[in-house]
Structures are given as C-alpha cells and as structure tokens.
C-alpha cells in the first residue's frame, strides 16, 4: 500500500470562561470552560503507511515531552488494531506554554 499524506491545522483557542469544580480522585479538579478558536494555528503534516510493525515519529522543533500528537496516534492505532508507520511534522505558530493551552505541561493542580 502506498503512503498517504495529509496536512491539518490545529487552531489556537482562547478561554472565555473557566470554572473550577469538584476535585477528582487523581488530584485534578473537574473544569467547566468555554473556548473560542482563533485564526492562529499550528500545522501538522502527516504521512501514513501500512506496516508490519508500528512506528510513530515526529519532527518537532521544541521536542515537547509526552507530545499529545504521539499519544493520540498510538491510541488510534491501538483502538483500530492496526500497525503502521506514521510520521508527523509539527510546524509551531502557537507559542508553547504561554497560556495558550499548549500541551500537558500547562495543566495545573488546584
């Protein structure tokens, strides 16, 4: 099977309202929030090819630990019970960890 390619935008969002609710057993609080997307966006290039073994890689200039793109790709392949070579190229435009809900390190315990 030949490789397939796609390019998607991941829009930035601003938080219009945030309410901290009940504390969960994992130590985090339940949140109720209202987001609005804005035109600022990261771009994600994706290349997919069926394979005998799963291999997921990313070109990420920031080398973000526990990158959510990689976690999501692994979860999708596992849920579909398929193996593939998937390569991502992340082109960042949204400032990382600058209050833009960038990735896991921005989550806080209340």
Overview of this structure, please?
Strands 1-2-4-3 form a four-stranded mixed β-sheet, with helices on one face. It has 110 residues and is mainly beta. Mean pLDDT is 86; it is low at 102-110. It contains one helix and four strands. Strand 3 (55-59), helix 1 (68-80) and strand 4 form a beta-alpha-beta unit.
Observed structural traits:
4 strands; mainly beta; 110 residues; disordered C terminus
Question: How would the blueprint of this fold be written?
Answer:
Layout: E1 4-23, E2 29-50, E3 55-59, H1 68-80, E4 84-91
Parallel strand pairs: 3-4
Antiparallel strand pairs: 1-2, 2-4
Q: What is the average of the pLDDT values?
A: 86
Helix segment count?
A: 1
Our Rg estimate from Cα atoms comes to: 16 Å
Helix content: 10-25%
Q: Strand fraction band?
A: over 45%
Order of helices and strands: EEEHE
Number of strands: 4
Quaternary organization: single chain
Shape: globular
Walk across the major sheet and give the strand order: 1-2-4-3
Helix/strand class: mainly beta
Distance between the termini: 48 Å
Major sheet summary line: 4 strands, mixed
Uncertain parts: 102-110
């Amino acid at each position: 099977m030949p490789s397939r390619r796609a390019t998607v935008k991941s829009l930035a969002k601003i938080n219009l309202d945030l309410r901290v609710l009940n504390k969960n057993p994992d130590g985090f609080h339940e949140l109720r929030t209202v987001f609005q997307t804005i035109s600022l966006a990261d771009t994600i290039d994706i290349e997919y090819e069926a394979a005998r073994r799963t291999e997921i890689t990313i070109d990420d200039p920031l080398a973000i630990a526990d990158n959510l793109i990689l976690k999501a790709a692994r979860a999708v392949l596992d849920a579909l019970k398929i193996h593939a070579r998937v390569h991502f190229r992340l082109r960042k435009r949204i400032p990382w960890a600058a209050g833009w809900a960038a990735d896991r390190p921005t989550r806080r315990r209340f």
